[in-house]
Design brief:
Length: about 240
């Protein structure tokens, strides 16, 4: 496939290297530093799919521009989901193709699946409180992580005692605490902890490298073209 990389930082470079290993062509790079190209330079005649990993403040505009260009777009940037419904609406209006995941690793999407199952089961047995931690590198701009937000939303859907989340220790019983830690070059760890008077149960995912994120994004990029609509890892992995 001919891939347009939008964002050529830690993720863009990891995806680019793996894409070539998988026999794909990097048809272009759009990045504030690494290239002078802009998305409008590219058309569906030259690009099969765009993969966007940039910044919370740029992702929405990048996605909307790809949709306007008629280029299927796989987006991994986090911290912009307050605009997501606008992107969904434009995708539908234009008959475009948008794939989004807060985390592209297969392991994290299994974590999301188990998280919802465990939340529902734990809700049946009183006496447990639940809280979350996420640990990332010191360069990460947004918090909580997009992964933590996805997991938190999964808990809120299935654990009625929690009705909202906060990125700090809980002050009310109905609050789900998400504690964010930034340390060194930590790739990404997410932990959900259930605590009662008599025991503790934890669900943890720890990424060892960015390869898992990159593989998932490329699997999505290989799958998306020719599929009009808005999709995520549940459709790709049939979870
Ligand atoms: N969904 C997933 O599986 C994963 C998602 N992410 C998310 O992806 C995003 C990027 O992460 P990461 O690669 O580590 O970050 P980096 O900062 O390493 O890379 C982002 C790159 O995008 C560039 N950039 C910023 N704005 C624009 C723009 N408007 N157009 C083109 N390029 C731009 C940055 O330039 P500059 O340095 O000048 O800002 C930088 O080179 C984050 O939101 C992160 O949360 C990360 C890993 C996995
Ligand atoms: O910024 C990162 O590095 C990551 N961001 C994503 C998130 O916000 O969940 C995914 C992964 O945890 C790495």
């Amino acid at each position: 496939m001919r891939i347009l990389l939008i964002g050529y930082g830690k993720m863009g470079q990891t995806i680019g290297a793996l894409a070539v290993q998988r026999g794909h062509e990097i048809a272009g790079i759009v990045d504030l530093h690494a290239s002078q190209s802009i998305i409008a330079d590219f058309t569906p005649e030259a690009v099969d799919v765009a993969i966007e990993f940039t910044h919370p403040d740029s992702a929405f505009a990048n996605v909307m521009t790809c949709l306007g260009q008629g280029i299927p777009v796989v987006c991994g940037s986090t911290g912009w989901l307050h605009h997501f419904e606008e992107a969904r609406a434009l995708t539908t209006e234009l008959g475009g193709s948008l794939f989004y995941a807060s985390n592209y690793s297969v392991g994290v999407n299994l974590f999301f699946h188990f998280n919802e199952y465990i939340a529902a089961k734990m809700a049946q047995y009183g006496g447990y409180d639940v809280a979350m931690r996420e640990i990332h590198h010191t360069q990460k701009i947004d918090q909580p992580s997009g992964t933590a937000l996805t997991a938190a939303e999964g808990i809120l859907r299935h654990f009625p005692a929690k009705t909202t989340w906060r990125n700090a220790p809980a002050e009310m019983p109905a609050e789900l605490a998400i504690i964010s830690e930034r340390t060194g070059d930590a790739v990404g760890t997410h932990i959900v902890t259930y605590t009662s008077d008599v025991d503790t149960l934890e669900l943890k995912h720890e990424a060892h490298s960015r390869e898992g994120f990159a593989l998932g994004a490329l699997l999505a990029a290989e799958w998306l073209p020719g599929r009009p609509g808005v999709f995520g890892m549940k459709e790709l992995l049939d979870l």
